[in-house]
Amino acid sequence: MDSTPPSSSSPFDLVSRALGRYVPGGGPAAAAGRDDAPGNRTTPRPTAENPVEDRQDQILGVVNLDEDLRITRANLDAAVFAGLHAVTGSPFADLLPPGDVPTVARRLRQVLEIGEAHVARIQRLRRGDGSELVVSMSILPAAAPQEGLTVSLIAMARRLHLYAAETAIGTSLDIGETAQSLAESLLAWGDVAAVDLDFAVWTGEGVAERAPGRIRLRRAALVPDRAWPEGYVTPGGDLPSDASRLLGQAVRRNDAPQAIVIPDRASVERLLGSPRVVRALVPGDRSASVACIPLVLDGAPPVVLGVAEVWRRADRPFHDSDLFDLQELVARTAHHVDLARQHQREHTQVLALQRRLLPRTGGHTIDIASVYQPATPDSAGVGGDWVNSFPLPDGRTALVVGDVVGHGLGAAATMGQLSMEARALLSAGLAPDEVLEHLDETVSLLDDAESGLAAGYSALGSTCCIALYDPVSHQVTLSSAGHLPPILVRPTGEAAPLALRPHPGLGTEFALREPFDVHTFSAPPGSLLALYTDGLVEDPALSIDEGIGRLADTVEGVHPWDGLQQAARQVVSALAPARQRDDVTLLLARMIGYRKGDTATWRLPARDDAPVRARAEVSALLRRWHIRPDTRDDVSLLVSELVTNAVRHAAGPVTIRLIRAGHGLLCEVGDTGNGRPRLSAGGLLDDGGRGLYVVHRLTTRWGVRWTDTGKVVWAEVAR
User: Fold this and answer.
1) Secondary structure (3-state) at 41
2) Could you give the residue ranges of the DSSP H alpha helices within 141-216?
3) Which of 210, 280, 310, 481 lies at a C-alpha separation of 20 to 30 Å from 550?
4) In what order do the strands lie in the sheet with 599-604?
5) End-to-end alpha carbon distance in the chain
6) Which are the contacts of 42, defined by CB distance < 8 A and separation ≥ 6?
7) CA 78 vs CA 30, 153, 416, 446: distances in Å
């Protein structure tokens, strides 16, 4: 035994002491001269209570490395490690096959720099006689970087190797990482391992039975990491159609998938035929034989997900036991590939839904830009953050941002439902606070025992903020359900969060139900409004108010001439935390509005002469706008009918607004009535008049929106 104090806590000493009473001394490590090195441990000699013959199946070993990845100490006395020359001062790379050196060295240095252990990597070690030993290698950092690393080695018996490989392969739901783990495990039986997946599996699409000639393979994983010959297919590349067809036929005999071995280079080239296919599939001149094992999804009939290939040199032919082991490993892990495929499909669906809701354009009265950045690349981390912007039929623009509680498909589905409901209600003319009342009820209904809690998901406490921008009055009407306050940048360049009264959020039945406030503020042309979710401003080192303040300072720096989409990306890049814990969402809206010369407003008393006065004012304006005579007559008649209806069915003054927008004219008539005009089956008004029928025939579309004092009937006419 060496003189290392029993209290030493270095990983090498801890592991070595744990091995000492189990590993017989005088093994190959001693022959390597390690006993004379300071600090080396020599294990007890066999005794009657500890016979050597009972220790021949020991599989544990440990090696210590310095910062230069050179061996400083080793304890490889177990018989299974015979032939491994772990000489003090030699590079650890001497124990590795040349093709594995770059990958393993990168892992070792990563642990050395970051200080996080890398556990249970399936790795080959090279013996002095050229043979190889498969081990499970764990890399443990020392307490201080200058003390180097400890590499724990477990020689992999066949059964243990299969178990460890299956465990490692099932740790990720990313299809690329799953395929890579499978390839690394297969490398224990060969010099090169590749995994080729059906293109539908790679993209997460549905898997269905198909003819062998229709299979299309994409290379998902390839090990070891090294330079490959020109023309050889590497990860991410599609195999030539002939190669896909040949592999598909090779693993399907008598219409049943099965593993095959092509024993020599001549047979490989004869089977592949085309030199181009040989270059695409054969990894090098030394590769002589290959085992092809199908990844099969059990079913009736079974479905081939892809093909795994293991290549060997001529001096290492495949035996029946090798093929049996390979088949067992692939059979045990094929379902992990299918789980990753299903996860990929869910991830694609969630992101498609998220991005489908992102604003497309802002129109000519408002400029819109948005950024959505998921917290993680998998759907389990995709949350319910959403932003939307869309023009309303009456010329206003709706800006909506929300954050649904939770992550994954359940949150995304709720997010999609709330977003579509909000859009429908806003398009129907409801005010922001009324829309939030409906969303509040929807969240409560979704969370009942049958549809919500039974599914293991609750959306209670989700937040939403809705803003409506009027490009004529340059006013924004906003309501919030527990959402963080938007940032308003005035044309003068001053930025500050809006002062909103706190609200508990949607569906908070357990709390005292709070009304949704309506906040109206002026947003002159050039104003910038920023709506966002908490992932952009949350930082463990800052309070939420400080995070919002940082956002205000950053948005304040957006120049009026800056492209808005680029500015949005820069804001997110400057503020998003390096290690995101939540989705990041940002919506920037720059107000433009209509020019004064493109709008006109009149306010008339509700008297019998109001229609005549309105018709005269509108006709005169349309002449100044140089509108065609036929369109001028239609608009004058339309306004006359709407004003007549307002005078007849409502009290108080009548407000008329005419807007020249794009290729059309937008007419609005507001009154203090609360009755909803309806087009009857006969095309007449409820009292037998013909006004609404005329409106319907003259316009491309029309509708009603409600205000605090009554309603506005709007109609659009092409010009």
Assistant:
1) coil
2) 158-169, 175-186, 199-202
3) 481
4) 599-604, 654-661, 664-671, 711-718, 701-706
5) 99
6) 1, 2, 25, 30, 35
7) 11, 11, 60, 62
Cα–Cα separations (whole angstroms), residue 116 to 131, 246, 333, 467, 486:
31, 44, 27, 47, 40
Distance between CA atoms of 555 and 560, rounded to whole angstroms?
Answer: 11
Q: Which residues contact 547 (CB under 8 A, 6 or more apart)?
A: 536, 537, 538, 539, 575
Pick from 57, 305, 286, 273: nearest CA to 190: 286
CB-CB neighbours of 68 under 10 Å: 9
Sole residue written with tokens 């649904």: 404
Cα 487 to Cα 422, 436, 558, 603: the distances in Å are: 22, 20, 13, 34
Contact 507, 447 (CB under 8 A): yes
Q: Identify the weakest region by mean pLDDT among 32-36, 212-216, 288-292, 404-408.
A: 32-36
**Do strands 287-297 and 303-313 pair parallel, antiparallel, or not at all (unpaired)?**
antiparallel
Are 505 and 462 in contact by the 8 Å Cβ rule? The answer is yes
Amino acid sitting at position 395:
G
Residue bearing the bigger pLDDT, 676 or 280: 280
Of 428, 360, 417, 425, residue with least CA distance to 384: 417
Task: Determine contact, residues 138/120, Cβ cutoff 8 Å.
Answer: yes
Is pLDDT above 50 for 51? no
pLDDT tens column, 415-458: 878 888 999 999 888 899 999 999 988 888 876 644 444 445 67
Give the Cα separation of 318 and 533 in Å (integer).
Answer: 58
Which letter does DSSP use for residue 34 in this model?
G
Which of 482, 399, 395 lies closest to 443 in space, CA to CA? 482
| Residue among 549, 554, 548, 558 nearest 574 (CA) | 554
Q: Which residues are bridge partners to 585 per DSSP? A: 372
Asked if 160 contacts 183 with a C-beta cutoff of 8 angstroms, the reply is no
Q: Is 665 helix (H, G, I), strand (E, B) or coil?
A: strand
- Cα(238)–Cα(200) distance, rounded to whole angstroms? 12
Dist CA 401 CA 390 (whole Å): 12
- Asked if 185 and 329 count as a contact pair (C-beta separation under 8 A), the reply is yes
Peptide bond connecting 98 to the previous residue in cis, omega within 30 degrees of 0: no
Q: What are phi and psi of 646, to 5 degrees?
A: -65, -40
Q: What CA–CA distance (Å, rounded) separates 257 from 304?
A: 7
Question: How many residues belong to the chain?
Answer: 719
Rounded to 10 degrees, the C-alpha dihedral 186/122/182/293 comes to 10
Give yes or no for residue 55 having a pLDDT over 60.
no
384 against 473, higher pLDDT? 473
**Beta strand segments in 340-493, E:** 366-373, 383-391, 397-407, 463-470, 475-481, 487-489
The label of the residue with tokens 């040949």 reads 246
In whole angstroms, give the CA distance from residue 534 to residue 396.
27
The dihedral through the CA atoms of 296, 300, 301, 305 has a sign that is negative
Return the higher-pLDDT residue of 274 and 357. 274
- Residue with tokens 């898997």, as numbered in its chain: 207
List alpha helices for 170-264, DSSP H. 175-186, 199-202, 241-250
- Beta carbons of 488 and 523 less than 8 angstroms apart: yes
CA gap 207, 334 in Å, rounded: 13
Q: Which two tokens stand for residue 41?
A: 């441990």
The one-character DSSP state at 514 is P
Give the whole-angstrom CA distance, residue 191 versus residue 183: 11
DSSP 230: T
